[in-house]
# Entry
Amino acid sequence: KGTQCERIVAKYGHTHLSAGDLLRDEVKSGSQVGQQCEAIMKEGKLVPMEVTIALLRNAMVRSGARDFLVDGFPRAMDQALAFEQMIKPCRMVLAFDCPEDVMEARLLKRGETSGRSDDNAATIRKRFETFVSQSMPVISHYEQLGKCHRISAVPPPEQVFAMVCHALEPTARASLSVSAAGQQPHKAADAEPEPAAQELEPALAFA
# Structure
């Protein structure tokens, strides 16, 4: 997912916002909210949606951009509905499908260098369970709306990106926003003013 987001940004120029990175930055800040998020993330559970939406909203405002690739969010239906009500509906969702055994091997390999507390076997399995119970309904929701494109993440990155481009080209030509979604899981203080809905073109993503 992260690899594909980098390639999407390089080719199409969207502003990439990673919900996970924003949460980890909040943890590093040592704030009370960050400490609470760290404990939740170590359990493989979802951070309260109010926290993540506030972090995303503030990052959107600070960026000054209009087109967004939102990576790692929403991970549950309440998050998806709240985000679209508070910010704006997405244009498209890309859901990257990957078998659990392949994903676990990739995450454990990443954990050798990432320094992430949640890149361990026990937490990874909990994240799989959370994904099935809470994130799969989100994918189904956007499939019913005709917005979700499911792409296999098993082939080499170049082949996956070719499939991504095939899905994105129609909206890219129309200068529309895009979203990426990933098979595996995977309240900021002093929030800035909420952006006017008509000024944002956000997209959604999963992790």
Observations:
- The chain is about 55% helix and 10% strand.
- The mean pLDDT is 82.
- Helices lie at 2-12, 19-28, 32-42, 49-63, 77-86, 100-114, 121-144, 157-173.
